[in-house]
Amino acid sequence: MQRITSATAADLFDIAATRRIEQAASAALPAHTLMRRAGLAVAKLAMAIAPHARTIWVACGPGNNGGDGFEAAAQLRHRGFFPVVTSIGDEGMLPPDAKASLQRARDAGVTFASTPPSDYELAIDALLGIGSTRPPEGAMADWLEKMHASGQPVLCVDVPSGLNADTGTLAQGVSPAQASTRTCITFLTLKPGLFTAQGRDAAGTVWFDDLGCGAFKDQPTARIAGAPEAQPRNHASHKGSYGDVAVIGGASGMAGAALLAGSAALHGGAGRVFVGLLDPSAAPVDTARPELMLRDARTLDLSSMTAVCGCGAGEAVGELLPAVFSSAAALVLDADALNAIAADGVLQAQLASRGKSGSPTVITPHPLEAARLLDRSVGEVQADRLAAARGLAARFGVVAVLKGSGTVVASPGEAPPIINLSGNARLATAGTGDVLAGMIGAALAAGRPAFEAAREAVWQHGHIADTWPADAAPLTAGTLARRAPV
Ligand SMILES: NC(=O)C1=CN([C@@H]2O[C@H](COP(=O)(O)OP(=O)(O)OC[C@H]3O[C@@H](n4cnc5c(N)ncnc54)[C@H](O)[C@@H]3O)[C@@H](O)[C@H]2O)[C@@H](O)CC1
Ligand SMILES: Nc1ncnc2c1ncn2[C@@H]1O[C@H](COP(=O)(O)OP(=O)(O)O)[C@@H](O)[C@H]1O
Ligand SMILES: [K+]
C-alpha cells in the first residue's frame, strides 16, 4: 500500500484499461483472491485512520465495490471492531465474489442494519466503484449526503461513489466533498479521475494497493510525473547559458500582469528578462525589480529569445501575434494571446503551422480560455479535462497546459498527458497564471524541451504553494513569483 503525493511518479489507467488488468489478474489467481486482498487493505487503512473507532459504518453497493465493503467489514470484525453494514440492492443479484464476501461478513458476526448508525467514527464508502453508470438516487444518494454532511472521516473504496474515474466529474446531485476528511484507497490501478477536476476534493488523500498484481500492465491513459529533477548549473556558465525571456503584454492598466511574468522568469533562473509593454505610457523602469529590462514590445528581436506573450495584453496583442509566431525561438502563449487566437481563424492556422514546424510552443489556458479555443462551453471542457488538453495539443501541434485543480499537460505526440499533483487553492488568486507563464518561459529559455519545461514549471509553481509557510503572509502572485514570503 502506497500513499500518493505530489512527488509520486506513476502511470494512470482509465476504466477500460483497469477492467482489462482486472480480468487478466483474476484469471491468473484463485477465485475471490482480489476481493479478499482489497477488503483486507480497506480494513487495515480503516484501522489506521480510526484506531479508536467504536462504530464503523460500511455502506455497500450492489456490485463488487460493495463486495469490497462486505469483505472489509468481515476483516474489521475479526480484529475486534464493530462495523455496521447498510447495503443497497437485491442480495440475489450480487456478483459471485460480492456474494461470497457478504457471507463471510455474516459468518464473522458483522451487524447489518437497514439505516446508517446515528453515531459512527468512520464511514466506509463502498457504494460504487468503476461500475458507476448513473447518478445515485434514493437511499444511495441519502447515504452519500449523510457522509458528506456528518463531518466524520470517510474512507472511499476504489473510487469515491459518484465520481467518474476517467474524468473526475461528480454525478449529478452528489455534493462536492468539503465537510469531511476524505481518504480513498484505490485498487489495481491509479485512475485519472482521482486527480483532476472534482477528483481531488472527492478522494482526499489517495492510497494505492496493486493487490499483488503489479506485473499486469496496459496502455497508460495519463501519468503523474512526480518532482522534477534539479537542473544543475555548470560552474563555467554565464547569463547567456540560461537564455533570454521576452514578456510581451501589459496593455494600459494591466502592466502588472506582464511584470509578474517577468519577475517569475527572472526568479525562475532566466539569464536576462525583457518586458515588452504594450502600454505606450508605461514607466521606463520597474524600480522594485530593476533587473527587468523594460522595452516597447514592438522593438524586441525575438529570434533568439523565448517569448511569453499575452499576460495582461488586451486586444492589441492580436496584431503582434503573426510576427511573434514567425520569429520567437520558443514561445509561451497565455491569457489575451489565447483569446485573440480563439477569435481569429487566421491566427489559429498560423499557430498550427508554427506547431507543425516543431518550434517549441506552450499554451497555458485556464478552462474558460480553453473553452474559447475549442469553441465549447467551460462545462464541456471540465467534463473531460484530459480530452480537452489532448484536443488542444493535437489541434495546434503545441504543448497544452490546461490549468486548474489537477492541471493537465498534454503534448501533441504520443506521450500520455501528465496530471500535476502539486498546488492547492492558495493559487486561486489573481496573477498566479502570469507567474506560471513566466516560469515556463524561464525553463524553455534554459533549453528544456517544451513538454518538460511545461510540466516541470507547473510542478514547481504548485510546490511553492504547497510548501508556503502556514504562518507567512498569504500567497500573492508577487510573492509566488519571487518564491519567497515578504
Ligand atoms: N471483481 C473483483 O474481484 C474485484 C473488484 N473490485 C471492486 O469492484 C469494483 C467494480 O465492481 P463492479 O464492476 O461490480 O462495479 P460497481 O460495484 O462499481 O458498481 C456496479 C453496480 O452498481 C450498479 N450501479 C451503477 N450505478 C448505480 C447507481 N447510480 N445507483 C445504483 N446502482 C448503480 C450497477 O448496475 C452494478 O450493479 C471496483 O471499483 C472495485 O471496488 C476490486 O476490488 C478488484 C477486485
Ligand atoms: N484550486 C487550485 N488548485 C491547484 N491549482 C490552482 C487552483 N486554483 C488555481 N490554481 C492555479 O493557479 C493558476 C491560475 O491561473 P489563471 O487562472 O490564469 O489566473 P490569472 O489569470 O489570474 O493569472 C493556474 O496555474 C492554476 O492551475
Ligand atoms: K466507492
TrEMBL record:
<feature type="binding site">
    <location>
        <begin position="403"/>
        <end position="407"/>
    </location>
    <ligand>
        <name>AMP</name>
    </ligand>
</feature>
<keyword id="KW-0067">ATP-binding</keyword>
<feature type="binding site">
    <location>
        <position position="158"/>
    </location>
    <ligand>
        <name>(6S)-NADPHX</name>
    </ligand>
</feature>
<comment type="function">
    <text>Catalyzes the epimerization of the S- and R-forms of NAD(P)HX, a damaged form of NAD(P)H that is a result of enzymatic or heat-dependent hydration. This is a prerequisite for the S-specific NAD(P)H-hydrate dehydratase to allow the repair of both epimers of NAD(P)HX.</text>
</comment>
<keyword id="KW-0456">Lyase</keyword>
<dbReference type="GO" id="GO:0052855">
    <property type="term" value="F:ADP-dependent NAD(P)H-hydrate dehydratase activity"/>
</dbReference>
<dbReference type="InterPro" id="IPR000631">
    <property type="entry name" value="CARKD"/>
</dbReference>
<feature type="binding site">
    <location>
        <position position="433"/>
    </location>
    <ligand>
        <name>AMP</name>
    </ligand>
</feature>
<feature type="binding site">
    <location>
        <position position="310"/>
    </location>
    <ligand>
        <name>(6S)-NADPHX</name>
    </ligand>
</feature>
<feature type="binding site">
    <location>
        <position position="434"/>
    </location>
    <ligand>
        <name>(6S)-NADPHX</name>
    </ligand>
</feature>
<dbReference type="InterPro" id="IPR029056">
    <property type="entry name" value="Ribokinase-like"/>
</dbReference>
<keyword id="KW-0630">Potassium</keyword>
<dbReference type="Pfam" id="PF01256">
    <property type="entry name" value="Carb_kinase"/>
</dbReference>
<dbReference type="InterPro" id="IPR036652">
    <property type="entry name" value="YjeF_N_dom_sf"/>
</dbReference>
<feature type="binding site">
    <location>
        <position position="366"/>
    </location>
    <ligand>
        <name>(6S)-NADPHX</name>
    </ligand>
</feature>
<keyword id="KW-0520">NAD</keyword>
<dbReference type="GO" id="GO:0016301">
    <property type="term" value="F:kinase activity"/>
</dbReference>
<comment type="subunit">
    <text>Homotetramer.</text>
</comment>
<feature type="domain" description="YjeF N-terminal">
    <location>
        <begin position="18"/>
        <end position="219"/>
    </location>
</feature>
<keyword id="KW-0808">Transferase</keyword>
<feature type="binding site">
    <location>
        <begin position="64"/>
        <end position="68"/>
    </location>
    <ligand>
        <name>(6S)-NADPHX</name>
    </ligand>
</feature>
<comment type="similarity">
    <text>In the N-terminal section; belongs to the NnrE/AIBP family.</text>
</comment>
<dbReference type="InterPro" id="IPR004443">
    <property type="entry name" value="YjeF_N_dom"/>
</dbReference>
<dbReference type="InterPro" id="IPR030677">
    <property type="entry name" value="Nnr"/>
</dbReference>
<keyword id="KW-0521">NADP</keyword>
<comment type="similarity">
    <text>Belongs to the NnrE/AIBP family.</text>
</comment>
<dbReference type="GO" id="GO:0110051">
    <property type="term" value="P:metabolite repair"/>
</dbReference>
<dbReference type="GO" id="GO:0046496">
    <property type="term" value="P:nicotinamide nucleotide metabolic process"/>
</dbReference>
<feature type="binding site">
    <location>
        <position position="125"/>
    </location>
    <ligand>
        <name>K(+)</name>
    </ligand>
</feature>
<dbReference type="InterPro" id="IPR017953">
    <property type="entry name" value="Carbohydrate_kinase_pred_CS"/>
</dbReference>
<dbReference type="GO" id="GO:0052856">
    <property type="term" value="F:NAD(P)HX epimerase activity"/>
</dbReference>
<dbReference type="GO" id="GO:0005524">
    <property type="term" value="F:ATP binding"/>
</dbReference>
<keyword id="KW-0511">Multifunctional enzyme</keyword>
<keyword id="KW-0547">Nucleotide-binding</keyword>
<feature type="domain" description="YjeF C-terminal">
    <location>
        <begin position="222"/>
        <end position="486"/>
    </location>
</feature>
<protein>
    <recommendedName>
        <fullName>Bifunctional NAD(P)H-hydrate repair enzyme</fullName>
        <ecNumber>4.2.1.136</ecNumber>
        <ecNumber>5.1.99.6</ecNumber>
    </recommendedName>
</protein>
<dbReference type="GO" id="GO:0046872">
    <property type="term" value="F:metal ion binding"/>
</dbReference>
<comment type="function">
    <text>Bifunctional enzyme that catalyzes the epimerization of the S- and R-forms of NAD(P)HX and the dehydration of the S-form of NAD(P)HX at the expense of ADP, which is converted to AMP. This allows the repair of both epimers of NAD(P)HX, a damaged form of NAD(P)H that is a result of enzymatic or heat-dependent hydration.</text>
</comment>
<feature type="binding site">
    <location>
        <position position="257"/>
    </location>
    <ligand>
        <name>(6S)-NADPHX</name>
    </ligand>
</feature>
<feature type="binding site">
    <location>
        <begin position="129"/>
        <end position="135"/>
    </location>
    <ligand>
        <name>(6S)-NADPHX</name>
    </ligand>
</feature>
<dbReference type="Pfam" id="PF03853">
    <property type="entry name" value="YjeF_N"/>
</dbReference>
<keyword id="KW-0418">Kinase</keyword>
